[in-house]
Structures are given as structure tokens and as C-alpha cells.
Amino acid sequence: MRFRRTAAIVKRPLDPVAEFLRTEAGGGFALLGAAIVALLWVNIGGSGGYESLWTTDLSLGVGDAAISQDLRHWVNDGLMVLFFFVISLEIKRELVTGDLREPRAAALPVIAAIGGVAVPALLFLALSGGGPASDGWGIPMATDAAFAIAALAILGDRVAIGVKLFLVTIAVVDDVIAIGVIAIAYTKELEIGWLALAFAGLLGVVAMRRLGAKGPAAFVPLAIFIWIATLESGVHATIAGVALALLTPARPVNGRPVLEQLEDRLHPVSSFVVLPLFALANAGVAFGGDALSDDDGKRVALAIVVALVAGKLLGIAGATVAAVRLRIGDLPEGVGLRSVIGVAALAGIGFTVSLFIAPLAYSDPVLIDSAKVGILAASLTSAAIGIAVLAPGGRHPSRGRGDLE
Predict the structure, then answer these.
(1) Which domains does the chain possess?
(2) What is the largest CA-CA distance in the chain?
(3) Are 287 and 115 contacting, i.e. CB atoms less than 8 angstroms apart?
(4) Phi, psi at residue 263, to the nearest 5°?
(5) Those residues with Cβ within 8 angstroms of residue 355's Cβ, 6 or more apart along the chain or in another chain
(6) pLDDT tens profile 124-180
(7) Contact at 8 Å (CB) between 118 and 275?
(8) Cα R_g (the chain), whole angstroms
């Protein structure tokens, strides 16, 4: 959870939580707007112009040192590094100074997230029919925190702050698992030499910290080198952002809260620039195309819908109820069974990371488009179910602590 804890905030410690939720909710609405634009662009304006733009090649560098990719890959392999850097800063903070540092507090969201990852993956494998179609088992594992929090924002103070925090904490653990899946399961070939250079670059970051380098700008050239080496190694380039975030000090350095300051500056850029561009580049799919006319494509789309909608709901709610009854963990204040079911349903909004994994899992454009259709349908269905479950809840006074106003 990207909750700032600075020295200036003392009297109202949950104000940073409210700020985080507002930014994330706003980013969710921006993400939704970009996805709608992409869908209208393809389905009304035609897919030709859309694909022509995003498949335009762009080279950066000189001669043999230049990197050439199309615009979509510059977004997915380049700009999305910032997104993964920000969510990994959040993970680092939670593990070191946040809720996940205490085993008892971490137990319930960890168990809930594991249930919400395992059940969708198993359902997908059972329904996808085997063969190349089954390679997308990682797609329904993800939860899009921005979209889910935007859905909660619609409900206002009918949802307790504990419900919002429970959802975000599950999403944090979900992010950890998703990053592992991307790094391990969807790495096709490794170039050991480049991987060694990336590792050497990370050691360089550690050395610079030890030598007292100050300010993020000092690390930028080395960060770019690490990104290039990771890209060339075969490991997805966004993992460079993950590694750099995990090397960021979670506690103040010489009185300066480095991690919190980076989150403050980069979270809005990630939410309002990077993610909408990602949605614009990846959410465009023609509903009247081949996506649902191919038998394998139909199975992929159906498997994703069932896995995200039913799998997340059953996995998270079932694991949470079991953990509470076994006294492994306690529900946050204001969270009851209805809230657990609503959160579990909203977790089926997989959008961003699910769309990110789809082209890693499949090389066939038909299967990629089928996966996109399934992701969009599942995300809308999960949002509708979650809102319907949580909407009848009564008003929860904010007491000035973190409500969305």
C-alpha cells in the first residue's frame, strides 16, 4: 500500500491512506476512460489506424547500439517499468514498515490472495482445453487495484475504510505473486551475459548508496543501463523496475524518507500517464473479429471469464472464511461476510496486469485478442457483482480517517 508516512503527518496518520485511495481511484477512472477510447477507436473507427499507430517502429540510440521496437512495446517494455517500480516500492514499504511486516496482520491477506491466485489458475487450466491455450494460466491471477478502488469510490462511505484497506492489502500480495509469475513462467530464453550485466548494475546501485550518492537523479544513468541489460537478457524488462525498487531504502536515510518521496512523485505519473497509455495501446480489440470465431479463442475467453469472476470470488472468500474460522487471522474493523464477498468479487477486475500477461503468454494474435475480450468481460462483470454486493451496506462515518470524499 502506497501510504506516505512523513514527519509532517502526525495528528492524522490515516490522511496518507486517504490520499493514496483518492489517487488510485482517480487513476482507475483514467484507466477506464483510456480503455473505452481504445475500444471505440477499433470498433467504430476501424482497427487499421489503431494497429498502424501502435506497430510503428521507433529506434532509440545510434548504430548497433540502437534499440528498435514498435510503440506498443515501448509502452509495455519501457513505460510500464515505472508502473512496476511504483508497485514494488509499495511492496517494499509494506514488507519493511507496513502491515505485512507483522506475521499475524499479514496472515489473512496473504492467505486470501493465495486463494485468489490458485483457484483462478486451476479453473483456467481446467477450462482452456490444454495445448497452447493453457499457456495463459497466469492471466486470471491478477487484481487491478486501481480499477477495484475506483469501483469502491462509486459507493462512497457505504464502504468502511477497513474494506478498502483489506482489498488493497490483498492486491499488494497479488502483485508479489504476479511479478514472480512474469519473471519466471513467462521468461522464454535467457542470455546469461546480459543477465550478469544487469546484476552488476544492481551491485553498482548498492555501491553508490554505500558511497553516499544523493538524489534519485544520480542513479538514473545506471537504472537505464540495468533496464537495457534486462531487456536484452530475455527476462521481461519491467523486472528491472522491480529490482531497483527493492533496493530503495524503506527507512529514512539521513532523515530523508527516500521511498516515500519517490512514491509521492511517481504514483500520480504512473496512475494518470503510464496506465492510461498502456490501456490505450493494449485494450483495443474488435468484437466482430476472429477473437470469438476460433474454437481455441472461445475456450480462452470463457476460461478467463470464469476464472476471474468465479475463481477470484471463491478463492478469496473461501480462503478468508477458512482462515478466520481456523483463527489464523482476524478481519479488519468494519469487514464482515458481505464485505469479504464484495472484495472477492472486485478482485476479479484483472485488467492491467492481465492485459500485460496476455501477449507474454500467447504469440497467436487470435488468442491474444480472445484473452483481451475475456479480460474486459470478466472485469466488467466482477465490478458489477462487487458493487451490487457492497451497495446495500449502510453509511460508515469516516471519522476523518481515509474516506473518499
Answers:
(1) 15-63+72-187+236-390 (1.20.1530.10)
(2) 64
(3) no
(4) -60, -45
(5) 278, 279, 282, 283, 372, 375
(6) 999 998 888 999 999 999 888 888 888 888 887 778 778 888 888 888 888 888 888
(7) no
(8) 21
The residue with cell 498502456 is 278
Question: Which phi and psi angles does 256 have, rounded to 5°?
Answer: -105, 120
Orientation of helix 161-184 relative to helix 103-127, angle to 10°: 60
Choose among 16, 43, 7, 27: nearest CA to 278.
27
Cell of 387: 458493487
**What contacts 130, CB < 8 A, 6 or more positions away?**
none
Cβ 382 vs Cβ 348: under 8 Å: yes
User: C-alpha cell of 79?
Assistant: 513505460
Residues 6+ apart with CB under 8 A from 224: none
Q: What is the pLDDT of residue 320?
A: 94
Q: What's residue 194's pLDDT?
A: 93
Global confidence as pTM = 0.84
- Residue 344: Cβ-neighbour burial (10 angstroms; 0-12, 13-18, 19+): buried
